[in-house]
């Protein structure tokens, strides 16, 4: 199983990013190898459709679970179409999120936040 | 000849200037402010004919799709996404057709999606055109392009959207002269400078009209003088104008304002003559 966390930097010691579509990196944790892989979000600088582009990256990487702050309506539609579960992050560190997930502390997100909120944060 | 009327800021009086000038010299008027067209309120054209404007959006035939994702990768607007099938976000689609062009199995066909309308009518014998973008639609470009495509080289006054976005650049393509309408406020001046930059970059000769002028000596007229910008006219800050505007009347109905617009027009003709 793969868990994807939206991240501000390409390090597990960094801060998780509350934005889904326009965060700079995704930390993708593989629970078989217990390792993180960092994927740059090419959608972050997109003029439009950042959330869609980002969701496509997540789908292409075979992710099963996304942990983030909030997502727009388009991103949520893509992730749901890809049968990816979405959870709201706790605290602010990237490396803490998988632990919270395994302990069942994370609340699932099933409603989109406002669109275009990631711009200008 | 095409004359565009624009402004960096909204609500400065573009429609007032363009409808009155168009009616005064009896030339074609075209409202390219498709998000909020209001020229027809003042010109009151008759026998309005309405035509729907659509853009072609892709439709994927799932039987033919081989899930190669080429359509998703080529889309510059992130309108397509692939999970177990291709999903279209139609409001992001610009109708460019790239997805159809790269599809190796011809699984993509295009369907027309209506985004707005174009209305044409006559105010006396004066031709009036206006585009309207449907509410919630994000893309005004295709309607503006279609409007521009409907005019020939007969003199036309083009009423633009406020700002300096694509929706202003599009109507400005190929125009002979630009009228920049502004008002003597800090915001008006700030946004006028952006509009000046735009028309200079596009190498369009232009002049400025200062609306709601209450005193001759203000920051906007000083800026124009310092920057060698031609002030082709001023419109006073006047209760009578506000009353006529609120009733949807053209100002040129009143002799004193008719004279004002006649003077503005002769300044424009002079400026165009010099720039040719």
From TrEMBL, chain A:
SUPFAM superfamilies of this UniProt entry? Nitrogenase accessory factor-like
Q: Which segments constitute the Dinitrogenase iron-molybdenum cofactor biosynthesis domain?
A: 16-99
Q: Which Pfam families match?
A: Nitro_FeMo-Co
Q: Which organism is it from?
A: Vallitalea guaymasensis
Question: According to the entry, what is the taxonomic lineage of the organism?
Answer: Bacteria, Bacillati, Bacillota, Clostridia, Lachnospirales
Q: Which Gene3D superfamilies match?
A: Dinitrogenase iron-molybdenum cofactor biosynthesis domain (3.30.420.130)
Q: What is this protein called?
A: NifB/NifX family molybdenum-iron cluster-binding protein
Automatic annotation (TrEMBL), chain B:
Q: Which UniProt keywords apply?
A: Iron, Iron-sulfur, Metal-binding
Known Gene3D superfamilies for this protein? 3.30.70.20, P-loop containing nucleotide triphosphate hydrolases (3.40.50.300)
For molecular function, the Gene Ontology terms on record are: iron-sulfur cluster binding; metal ion binding
- Indicate whether Amino-acid biosynthesis appears among the record's keywords: no
List each copy of the 4Fe-4S ferredoxin-type domain by range.
Answer: 56-85, 86-113
* PROSITE patterns, sorted: 4FE4S_FER_1 (PS00198), 4FE4S_FER_2 (PS51379)
What SUPFAM superfamilies does this protein's entry cite?
4Fe-4S ferredoxins, P-loop containing nucleoside triphosphate hydrolases
Query: What are the transmembrane regions?
Result: none
Protein name in the entry? 4Fe-4S binding protein
| Species of the source | Vallitalea guaymasensis
